[in-house]
Write a structure and sequence with these properties.
This protein has helices spanning about 35-50, 60-80, 90-105, 125-145, 165-210, 210-255, and strands spanning about 20, 25, 25-30, 30. By secondary structure, it is mainly alpha-helical. The protein has a two-stranded antiparallel ribbon with strand order 1-4.
Length: about 260
């Protein structure tokens, strides 16, 4: 009897599963695989930063890695916000590193030992919360520092009087869409890469099961393409974390200087 072709559901990897089912006041507060990998990411990030806080006169590689990331974020904020940006280093650094580690941990090939990493940044609910957190900081800083003058952000300097209302409306809509676009960009990038890898893996499995001919024609090229896509995904993981942090700094700059 011929073996059935492998059935790979590329969306199954994004399924949130309860690891411990809890309920409080009728509300489901189960501990899920998504929450577990958020906790793992937080612990790994904490240990990474803790290992680089030795403050040795001649820093080791670990300390240099942490200081390099910190200096990178500090330079980015100074370039985009100015000296006022230094007070946002702890938040933007934490945001950047959390997204970076989450993206990279989700790419680890732990399935070979029975552990299936969960890339929670491929869920819009997670990226949406991160985006709303950054957007909330922008609003708090804007109103705290400028009061109602913050609304002048929606009227660019030199706008003709007749165009104030339509331009202000367009700028307001653009401003309110920022958290949505910020969250959507990260969510789509991470989901698309993982779906592509899952589809290619199904080609490898089906081609191998079909025999040596199809294994060489379909399976081998798909496997080689997977290696290239994995390398690209590592690059995307870093780029998306950087873009998220960069846009956050640019939005904070608007709140600080009303540009």
């Amino acid at each position: 009897m011929a073996a059935e072709p492998a059935k790979v559901d590329p969306m199954y990897q994004f399924t949130i599963k309860p690891l411990a089912e809890w309920e409080m006041a009728g509300i489901d507060i189960s501990f899920t695989n998504s929450a577990a990998w958020m906790m793992i990411t937080t612990i790994v990030l904490f240990l990474f930063v803790l290992g680089g806080m030795k403050r040795e006169l001649v820093p080791g590689r670990w300390q240099m890695a942490v200081e390099s990331f910190t200096g990178f974020i500090d330079d980015m904020l100074e370039a985009n916000i100015g000296k006022e940006g230094r007070k946002y280093v702890p938040y933007v650094f934490s945001l950047f590193m959390f997204i970076l580690f989450a993206n990279l941990l989700g790419l680890l090939p732990l399935g070979v030992v029975g552990i299936h990493p969960f890339t929670f940044t491929s869920h819009f609910t997670v990226t949406g919360v991160l985006a709303l957190l950054s957007f909330s900081i922008v609003l708090v800083v804007g109103f705290w520092k400028h009061g109602f003058k913050f609304f002048t952000l929606f009227v660019p300097h030199g706008t003709p009087v007749a165009m104030i209302v339509p331009i202000a409306l367009i700028e307001f809509i653009s401003f309110m869409i920022r958290p949505f676009s910020l969250a959507l960009r990260l969510f789509v990038a991470m989901m698309a890469g993982h779906v592509l890898l899952e589809v290619l893996s199904s080609f490898v499995i089906d081609g191998t099961n079909a025999g040596p001919l199809w294994g060489g024609v379909v399976g081998l090229p798909s496997f080689l393409l997977m290696i290239g896509i994995c390398a690209l995904e590592i690059l995307v993981a870093g780029i998306q974390a950087y873009v998220f942090a960069l846009l956050t700094s640019l939005y904070i700059n608007d709140a600080e200087h009303l540009h």
